[in-house]
Description:
Strand content: 5-15%
Shape: globular
Distance between the termini: 65 Å
Amino acid sequence: xxxxxxNSIKQLAGFTVRLLVVAVTCVALSACAGSVQPQxxxxxxxxxxxxxxAGASTDTEKLERLFLYVRDEIDFNWIYxxxxxxxxxxxxxxGVCMQKANLLSAMxxxxxxxxxxxxxxVHKQALEDFLPSYIYERWADPFPHTVVEIRYRGTWRSFDPxxxxxxxxICLDRKINFGRYPEIVTAYKTDxxxxxxxxxxxxxxxxxxxxxxxxxLEPLLAWEEEHVCFLKRLMKPFIFRKARxxxxxxxx
Length: 252
């Protein structure tokens, strides 16, 4: 009995040590992820919003300008943490879907619109070619993708500003990501429609999983807390840095 107890204690101790080693390794790798210097530190949401919508005579024109600004002037690229303030996204000049959605929401609210977030489940093919293969293989499938809903003329309209025009053209030219799939290329619309703008990632919607909403990003953060294991969350800065290297190389 004593030997069995001693062996159990040794096994538990060994497991604990291995877990600590993994955790320390994750922290070290995450620390290597580093940070970025803002490309546009002078930008702020109030003045940028006013500049973008200056001279717009209708709400439709305001929506179009705001959407196209966030979609095309803010590059799709990876940076951690995902829930950085909207103004920081504006100053960095790039962000992932969650961050670009947060910026569009903040600017639209500043312009007088009511907004909320919709988190729609999409399959991981939405990020095909944009992640290292060993990370892509282990990516949650499906996962919640963030879009903005803006109340316009009494109705909630969905706007997804994720992929900028430059990235859209790269995907078409190199036949990567959605560019691999002619049906998505044909269906996707780049010209602004006030009825809403469906993003390329939404064509991978997991229709058997209902979307959920939030006035803030908290529901998405809570989902990650519940569904993404601790070690994966710990590794995210490192993962995002690797993914940003891929995106930087694609943009040349």
